[in-house]
Amino acid sequence: MSENNRLLIKGNKYNQKITERRTGILFISPFFILFGIFGIWPLLFTAYLSFHRWDILGTSEFVGLSNYINLFTNDPLFWRALGNTFSIWIMSTVPQLILALLIAFFLNQQFLKGKTFFRLGIFVPNVTSVVAVGIVFSAMFGTQYGVVNYLISALGFDIINWRGSYFGTHVAISAMVLWRWVGYNTIIYLAGLQSIGKDIYEAATIDGASKLQQLLYITIPMLRPIIIFTVIQSTIGGMQLFAEPLIFGVGSNYQGLTMTLYLYQEAFNRFSFGYAAAIAWMLFFIVIIVSLINLFFSQKIKSA
Amino acid sequence: MNEIGSNKFGNLLVYLFFIVVTLLSVFPFYWMYVVGSNTTSAVNQFPPAVLPGTNFMENARNVFERIDFLGVMMNSLIISGAVTLSVLFFCSLAGYAFTKLTFKGRDAAFIFVIATMMIPPQLGLIPNFMLISELGWIDNLRAVIVPAMVNAFGVFWMRQYISSAMPYELVEAARVDGCSHFRIYWNIVLPIVKPALATLGIFTFMMTWNDFLWPLVVLKDSSVHTIQIALRTLNDVYSTDYSMILAGTFMATLPILIVFLIFNKQFVSGITEGAVKN
């Protein structure tokens, strides 16, 4: 082989490397271009906005930290929204995850027939749009003629003023979240359960462990990483709760006002973009803090 | 052996539990139809009507009079279809590059993609609105389609699938035969990853179809409303006519239920695989 030829091959390889690099960057670039425009830039600009008084006409004035200071010291609505968000988050997440775990545990039992049918029935709410859920639950939780109050009165209890009371509004909104997401979490837990070997349960059964003991001492500890995953997902979702209270109605005491709804109203009803941007950053910090607390507690449970 | 008797009773309880849970799960759908097929006055009384009535067509006609139902369904279809096709294309293209092409900074770039999934979308809501206004895209379907054309979850999902389903030798052999990278992607990768595309596609379609906050902000005129925004308008403006509103809600929910029942396998496996991999 001549020296020339060898160089040609070498050059070819070098060329190939360059094309591979160029193509690679070209192929992944759509994500980075789009994320740069609609992801990173807005993130930074939200921070910039939050230090300004800014209205829809574009007039702006630098105000330093005063938006944040106002939020903390001079805005009872913000604190109310924060409290509502947490209350609804807990009321929807805790029963939702426990129920999902129970359903998944039972769905994983060998004797059960009709698994596919039950699984489908339990999952189907998740594909319903949040608007449809909001509307139908608003009808069901009507104070005067709602079917839930009808059931309650038929059982001999006093009817509940769903729209007018703190408790009623939080229960109705939590019920929407619960209904829509139980099936989703069930499917995730079920996938986790199916990765646990059958022999562990068999051994436990031989040793005389009851189903409840198996659930508490085998299933839950082995599902721990997946449970953490669902808790974090529910946290992120819960902090972003928006459409359900918007459709159900906030109520005269703002008992249905959540943080994202407050952010939306400040930005697009009152057009105070700067103040709304400060709320957006607070929301982000709260999501991070709550996620960290979650992680901390689950670490503690692990070492206990 | 007295275990057997108590077990049978326990099994019965489990069945009972499932019947109750499934009924609760399905009840709101039933209720949509019950209210939507009665008159509002039949619903607004104690005891309320609990069985389907005969007024559905009448209520549906009222819905068609108040909103351009077919038009908003079409808008939703255009948005969801365009977003889904483009997500499938760009995410699988990136997934291919992230697994089968070697270039400097590739792995760092992928970690960056994953990290972006942590950012809540509300954080950029206001600047995005200002940007869309500057572009003159308010009341234009582009405002919803373009920002959603590729997403981090899709890139992650396609990368995981391509790296496990496609041997590197296949790429090398095609390279030796003189195939360009795009031809390899189009003629070899795409056919192999069809199952992952199906899952990602149905997932993206449903998410886009049900999306609410962003379309609410940028699609103001009723001619560009999606079905979700139109339903919300119906609920806001005619809040006393519950039967008409729920007839509309039922009609809007039915197509997505049918789509789900057809593709429920891809959907469910998508969720489980996504969760287990995370």
UniProtKB/TrEMBL annotation, chain A:
InterPro entries: ABC_transporter_permease, MetI-like, MetI-like_sf
All residue ranges annotated as the ABC transmembrane type-1 domain in the record: 82-294
Entry's transmembrane regions: 25-51, 86-108, 120-141, 171-193, 214-236, 273-297
Keywords associated with the record: Cell membrane, Membrane, Transmembrane, Transmembrane helix, Transport
One GO BP: transmembrane transport
Subcellular location: Cell membrane
Pfam families: BPD_transp_1
Family that this chain belongs to: Belongs to the binding-protein-dependent transport system permease family.
Name this protein carries in UniProt: Cytochrome C biogenesis protein
Automatic annotation (TrEMBL), chain B:
Protein's name in the database: Sugar ABC transporter permease
Gene source species: Salipaludibacillus neizhouensis
Keywords, in A-Z order: Cell membrane, Membrane, Transmembrane, Transmembrane helix, Transport
GO biological process, one term: transmembrane transport
Entry similarity comment: Belongs to the binding-protein-dependent transport system permease family.
Subcellular location per the Swiss-Prot or TrEMBL entry: Cell membrane
Domain ABC transmembrane type-1: 73-263
Keyword Cell inner membrane: no
